[in-house]
Amino acid sequence: MASRRLALNLAQGLRGRAGGLSVPSRRGLATPHNSPSSKTETTTLKNGLTVATQYSPYAQTSTVGMWIDAGSRAETDETNGTAHFLEHLAFKGTAKRTQQQLELEIENMGAHLNAYTSRENTVYFAKALNEDVPQCVDILQDILQNSKLEESAIERERDVILREAEEVEKQLEEVVFDHLHATAYQHQPLGRTILGPRENIRDITRTELSNYIKNNYTADRMVLVGAGGVPHQKLVEMAEKQFANLPSKAAVTSAYQLSKKKPDFIGSDVRIRDDTIPTANIAIAVEGVSWNDPDYFTALVTQAIVGNYDKALGNAPHQGNRLCGLVHKNDLATSYMSFSTSYSDTGLWGIYMVTDQLSSVDDLVHFALREWSRLSGNVTEAEVERAKAQLKASILLSLDGTTAVAEDIGRQIVTTGRRMNPAEIERIIDGITEKDVMDFANRKLWDQDIAISAVGSIEGLFDYSRVRADMSRNF
C-alpha cells in the first residue's frame, strides 16, 4: 500500500477553527506553559478490546487507528501473504460503502486513510480534523468488520500485488533483509516474507482471507489508538458503540501457537551472486533483542556507536564513529547502516553494507566485525555519551506528529502491553554506561553465530567460516 508516512498539510487558517489554540496578539518574554502533561491512557472494554490514547488539548487534528497483533508471522507456509493481501482489499468496499463511496467520504473530509503490514502487526489508521474523528472510527470499524472481499476485487488486487512484488525485488536493501530473515529463521514463521511467494499470491482464495480475519481480527489482539485532539473517554465511547460486536477471542489455531513460539536463530548464510549488479550488498547479523528485553536500549546505544555512513554526504568523514573514519579513509564502502531490529521475542542486531570497491569486500567485512569485537573490551565514555545523545534525539524527533505518536502507542501496547513515555525512555538511556555496552557486546556479539545475506557482485566475500572467525578477534 502507500507509504507509512502521512503528509501533514495544515494551513495557517486552521488556527481559527473550533478546537484551535487562541494566540494572544502580544507576548513579552517566554512564560511557563501549564498544559496538562501528555500521558497515555488505556481502557479495556468488556470484549477485550484495548483503547489507548494520548490527548493533546491544543491539537487540531487526530490520528486514530487499529493495531492488530497479527502479521505475516501468523500465517502458514500455504497462506503466507494473506495478511498483506487483506490490507489491499480493505479499501475495496464494504457491505455499507462501495469503494467509490469510501474514497469520496475520505476525500470530502480532507482526511488520510492508510494501512500497512509487518511481520508481527497489521495496522489500519486515519488522520483527520478532530470533528471528523467519529466518522473515521466508523470507517475503520466498517473496513475491519464488513469488508466484502468480492471475487472481482480479489482478482484485480492479485495483479497489483504481483506488480508490487516485482518492484520490491528491484530494491536491493529489501531483498537482502528478506533473505537475512529467511536464513536466520529458516523454516520458521519469522523467516517468511510479508508479501509471500508468487505462487501463494496467485492462489490465495476468499476462504483463506475470511479465515485469517476470523482467526486474528479479534478484540483480545487489537488496540484502538488515538493521538491528538481526541479525548480518551470520547474514543472509549466510540469504541463501545462501533466495536461492541467484535469477537472477544478466536479458536487457538496451530498457526497462532507456532507464531508465539520463540524462533531459533540459525548461524548461516545465503548468497545470490549477480555480477550485473555493480555493487556488493551485504547484511550480517547476530541474534538481537526483543522489545521487552532489558538490553533493548543498550542494544540501540551499541548500534549508535557503530553508526551509519554514506559516502555521498558531506559530513561522512567527520561523524566521530571509529568505523566511519576507517571506512572513509580507505574508501571501503559506498554506505553502511547499523541496525537493531526487534520483535516480540527475538531480534536481529547487525550491519548492512554497500560497496562498489569489489576488491575490498573482505577488508570491509573484516573491519566491521573488528569494530564489533572492540566493543567487548574497549569502549570510551565519550563515544557512549555521543551515542546516547543521538539516540535520544532520534527517538524524540521520530515522535513529531500525531501519526508518529499513534504508531508508537500502538506498537508498544500490542507488543509489550504498556507504553513507556519519552521521559521514562530518556531516564533509561541516561543510565547506560560504557560498562553496560561492553557487557552487552560480550554476551551478544563476542564469538556469536552470525547470519549473512549477500546479493550482487560478491565474489570477494570470503566463506562463512572465515567471516565467523572474525567474531572473536583479539587486539
Automatic annotation (TrEMBL):
In terms of superkingdom, the source organism counts as: Eukaryota
Ranges for domain Peptidase M16 N-terminal come to 51-198
Region named Disordered? 17-43
GO cellular component terms, alphabetically, are: mitochondrial matrix
Q: Which family does it belong to?
A: Belongs to the peptidase M16 family.
Q: What the protein does?
A: Catalytic subunit of the essential mitochondrial processing protease (MPP), which cleaves the mitochondrial sequence off newly imported precursors proteins. Preferentially, cleaves after an arginine at position P2.
Can you say what this protein is called? mitochondrial processing peptidase
> What taxonomic ancestry is recorded?
Eukaryota, Fungi, Dikarya, Ascomycota, Pezizomycotina
